[in-house]
Amino acid sequence: MNRARAAIFDVDGTLTDTNHLHVVAWWEAFRQAGHILPMPDIHRAVGLGSGDLIERLLTADRDREQDAVISAAHKTLYGTYYDRIPAFEGAGDLLRALAERGWSVVLATSASGPELEALRRAVDADDAIGDTASSDDVAEGKPSPEPVQLACELAGVGADQAVFVGDTVWDMEAAARAGVRSVAVLSGGIPRADLELAGADAVYQDVAELLSRLDDSPFGRTVS
Question: If we measure between CA atoms, which residue out of 90, 157, 156 comes closest to residue 125?
Answer without folding.
Answer: 90
